[in-house]
Amino acid sequence: MMSGGDEAMRSNISFLPLSRQHCKWIRKLHQKKYRRKEKLFIAEGLNSFHAAVKTPHHTISEIIVDHDFADKVRDNPSLFPLSPEIPVYECSRDEMESLSSEETPQGIVIVCHQKEFLVNETTTGKMSDPLIYCEETSDPGNLGIIIRSSAWFGFNRILIGPFCVDPFNTKVIRSSAGTIFGVEVYQSIHRDVIIELADRAGYTLIAAVPAGGIPLHQCEKSEKNIIMFGHESKGLSRHLAERADRRISIPGCGTVESLNLSVAASIILYEFAVQLGRF
Predict the structure, then answer these.
(1) Mean of pLDDT values over 181-200
(2) Nearest to 66, CA basis, from 40, 45, 42
(3) Contact (CB, 8 A) for 108 and 65
(4) Least enclosed by CB within 10 Å: which of 22, 131, 149, 257?
(5) Is residue 147 over pLDDT 90?
(6) CATH architecture of 4-113
(7) Confidence (pLDDT) at 84
(8) SS3 of residue 266 by DSSP
(9) How do 214-215 and 246-249 pair as beta strands?
(10) Alpha helices of the chain — where are they, by DSSP H?
(11) Distance from the Cα of residue 267 to its chain's centroid
């Protein structure tokens, strides 16, 4: 038997029916052109939900849950610590599967506003060291892991080139394990802007290259750095690689040709975190 307080908590949670037209509109947000048009994106699962609730960067527009998840919330309203102004829609399992990009949907999809971060004189003065720049990362999993590793090591400003995969791609968000809600992602930043930023604000440009660079552990510390990562197979553009103040590589002793981009980025970010005394 529920107490009066429990009954009150349950009565405050209202689930709206999800119409077919609304369901169709949400599915469109899996496409980049609609995400940009609406300035919204989809995230899935409780990790993303709790991350979105805790951070102000990308506020929740609405929530969709399936019948099973809704029943869990009715039994335990504390699962949903959110403002009553946010609409919550209830749908069937089949509808949830049509909305989700996961093989086994967790029963909750959230639609969030995309907050736009701009590189200007004001933000430059507040930017932490180092900044992370992904010039042309094409694989959603790699970009998501780079975002996750950046957040883990306390580097919360990530600049994304115009030819990168969309950071609000559902697979990127899933690979980031919700950490995209806690970092600042600056989109469509051309390499020329990176060079101009370095010149104007006194950053050292550090290019991560597969081979031929300074061994990572021998790289001299600078007060301000922009660490640059390129395409998975092509690497950084020649323009950026040649313009870099330093080129770094991770020494290896095995027989493989190279490291996966996100693995290499994580190792490099760890080394810089150590140099900055973050442990």
Answers:
(1) 95
(2) 45
(3) yes
(4) 257
(5) yes
(6) 2-Layer Sandwich (3.30)
(7) 80
(8) helix
(9) parallel
(10) 4-11, 20-28, 32-38, 45-54, 67-75, 93-99, 121-126, 140-152, 170-175, 191-201, 238-243, 261-275
(11) 18
pLDDT band at 237 (very low <50, low <70, confident <90, very high): very high
pLDDT at 81: 76
Query: What is the mean pLDDT of the segment spanning 177-204?
Result: 94
Say if strands 40-44 and 108-113 run parallel, antiparallel, or are unpaired: antiparallel
Check residue 7 and give its pLDDT: 41
Measured CA to CA, the distance from residue 66 to residue 70 in angstroms comes to: 6
Longest dimension (CA), the chain: 71
Q: What is the pLDDT of residues 50-95, one digit of tens each?
A: 999 988 899 999 999 999 999 999 888 887 777 788 999 999 999 9
Q: Which helix (H) or strand (E) holds 88?
A: strand 88-91
At 70, which amino acid appears? A
Homologous superfamily (CATH) for 121-275: SPOUT methyltransferase, trefoil knot domain (3.40.1280.10)
For 208, the enclosing helix (H) or strand (E) is strand 204-208
Give yes or no for residue 152 having a pLDDT over 90: yes
> pTM to 2 decimals?
0.90
Instruction: Please name the amino acid found at residue 141.
Output: G
- Each domain of the chain, given as residue ranges in start order, spans 4-113, 121-275
Place of tokens 């999809």: 109
Percent of residues in the chain assigned helix, strand, coil, to nearest 5: 40, 20, 40
* pLDDT at position 79: 77
Question: b/e map of 234-267 (b: 16 or more CB within 10 Å)?
Answer: ebbbeebbebbeebbbbeeeeeeeebebbebbbe
Assign 63 to helix, strand or coil.
strand
Residue 106's CB is within 10 A of a number of other CB atoms, namely 17
Joined together, the tokens standing for residue 32 give: 């980049």
